[in-house]
Structure formats: C-alpha cells, structure tokens
Specification:
alpha+beta; 5 helices; 6 strands
C-alpha cells in the first residue's frame, strides 16, 4: 500500500512538472536586459538565459553585419528594453522549448498580458510564422497585426519595410493582404 501511494504521488508530481514545462510555469522571472526587440535575458532557474520571443521577428538592431541594423530595429529594441527590463515576467512555452541557438522560446507575459502580441500590435514585428502558427495565440496575433497594418504603425508605415515583410509572409505561406 505504501509503495502504491508513493508511486501515485510521484506520478502526480511528474504530471504537474510536465504540464508546467509545456504550458508555462507559474513562476516569474526577472528580465535582466533586452538584447534587441525579440530577445531578452532573464534570470531563469539560477542562471541568465536568453529568451527568444515566439512568433515575433523585429528589425535588426545588434546584428554583427552592421548594414543589417536599421533605425526601426532600435525602436523595437528600446520598446522591449523600456517595457521589460527589471520586470518580473511569466514565460509560457510550447512543445519546442529551445531554438537551434539554444535560446528558450517563449511567450513573455507581463502582468498577465502577452508581450509578444503587444510587439505585433505596436507594428514592431509582423506575426512571424516561419516556424509555424502560434498554437494558443494565433487569433490574437492576427488581430494585432491587422490593426497595426490598418493604422500603418512602425514597420507598416514604412513602404520598404512593408514590402519586405509582405514578401517574407508570402514565403511563410501567408497571404499578403
């Protein structure tokens, strides 16, 4: 009986841990700094970890090839830095926990709001679907981008950037309209 109870408790704790990892745990992590508009560094389980924001791809601001860096990238980077640095955030994960560079892939939640969707709503990134649609926030991302494009915010107010992102979106299998 004691062994069955121990097994049951262990199974329950294992299930809870797996759900926490898959769905985003309830812990909050301090944002140490923004690397750029779509990557931040957080204090995560006792060490500094880079977190790549899911479904977001802001213009470059710290690319090693300086020609890739553009003023709109600095705007996105400053927005992320001003909005997140020093704050405590929750991280919500989908099954792919890390990207090919070893960064955590997550939705960053600030005061319960999805910061990734907010970046798109501000017109600082398209809804980035190169690696697939958001399982949980697809509708929110689509609505945010639609509003940003309608209001010609940031990347959508610059004709060259608009054309660039529309071309990329067509490569990702999304209509340009």
């Amino acid at each position: 009986m004691k062994r069955n109870l121990t097994s049951l408790v262990f199974a329950g704790l294992s299930f809870f841990l797996l759900c926490s990892i898959a769905l985003g745990d309830s812990k909050e992590y301090r944002v140490i700094r923004a690397v750029d508009g779509d990557t931040v560094v957080v204090a995560y389980h006792g060490k500094e970890e880079k977190v790549r924001l899911r479904c977001v791809d802001t213009p470059e601001s710290v690319h090693p090839d300086k020609k890739q860096n553009i003023p709109m990238g600095k705007v996105a980077s400053d927005f992320a830095s001003n909005s997140l640095t020093g704050k405590y955030v929750a991280l919500e994960f989908e099954p792919e926990l890390r990207d090919r560079h070893g960064r955590l892939l997550a939705y960053v939640l600030v005061d319960g709001k999805n910061f990734n969707v907010e970046i798109v709503r501000k017109g600082l990134s398209p809804y980035y679907t190169k690696y697939g649609l958001s399982r949980k926030y697809d509708r929110s991302f689509r609505e945010a981008e639609k509003l940003a494009r309608k209001d010609k915010l940031n990347i959508w107010g610059d004709s060259e950037l608009t054309q660039k992102y529309l071309r990329l979106k067509s490569k990702w299998g999304q209509p340009q309209s």
